[in-house]
Amino acid sequence: MAKPVFKRVVIKLSGEALQGRLGYGIDYDVINSIARQIKEVKALGVEVAIVIGGGNIFRGISGSAKGVDRVNADYMGMLATVINGLALQDALEKASVFTRVMTAIEMEALAEPYIRRRAIRHMEKGRVVIFVGGTGNPYFTTDTTAALRAIEIGAQVILKATKVDGIYSSDPNKNKKARKFESLRYIEVLKKDLKVMDATATSLCMDNKLPIIVFNLKTDGNIKRVITGEKIGTTVKG
């Protein structure tokens, strides 16, 4: 059996990843596939935390562009992440994976408040922790949340699950000549404006020497492949 090269990871899932082919909302075939993949990883003894977006339900920046007050729009987006987090928790627990949802916006009936030491303790006990509610503040993306939480809990890597198999010089769906990068430095991502993660998140990772691996979530088993060291996707470090 392949051995993991990381002990503690943060997986960044976009809300759009959960919608599958639906175009909106939650595709339960997708979310159940994610749950199965995470169960595989847990069987290797890896400690897993997940940061989840809400773009399949509501994107704060899109709402703001359509005239919604930016602060209100961002809070609406944060609430969308809670819906996704609860759906993923349900799928994981049906797969017999003990899970806790922790939120940056207190809502005691639904989830635990985010407390760093408690999150770490949950992971040490073998539970998957899902971080929702973003950072709890407007103007910050869930990419920044992923970087912040990963640094706070001492994760060794951020695994950014996307719809493409790495980072390209331009959108590979629009440009057939787009070039895939096997590895990049943080400063190259910032200078080339490659949109891997937002600039705040990338800068946080750079300052704290936290690597990012971007890979295709749609290929079943890819989470395990990344964690066991297979060379897939694009690695950002240095």
Write the layout of secondary structure elements.
Elements: E1 8-13, H1 15-19, H2 28-42, E2 47-52, H3 60-65, H4 70-94, E3 99-103, E4 112-113, H5 116-124, E5 128-132, H6 142-153, E6 157-162, E7 167-168, E8 180-181, E9 183-184, H7 186-192, H8 199-207, E10 212-216, H9 222-227, E11 234-236
Parallel strand pairs: 1-2, 1-6, 2-5, 3-4, 3-5, 6-10, 9-11
Antiparallel strand pairs: 7-8, 10-11
Describe this entry's structure for a reader:
This protein has 238 residues and is α/β, with parallel strands linked by helices. Helix content is 39%, strand content 18%. The chain contains nine helices and eleven strands. The strands form two sheets. It has a nine-stranded mixed sheet with strand order 4-3-5-2-1-6-10-11-9, with helices on both faces. A two-stranded antiparallel ribbon has the order 7-8. α6 packs parallel to α8 (199-207) and α7 runs antiparallel to α8. It is globular, with a radius of gyration of 17 Å. The two termini are 30 Å apart. The mean pLDDT is 93.
Task: Sum up the structure in keywords.
9 helices, alpha/beta, Carbamate kinase, 238 residues, 9-stranded mixed beta sheet, single chain, globular
Give the structure's gist in a few sentences.
Helices cover 39% and strands 18% of the residues. By secondary structure, the protein is an alpha/beta fold. Helix 2 crosses helix 4, helix 6 runs parallel beside helix 8 and helix 7 runs antiparallel to helix 8.
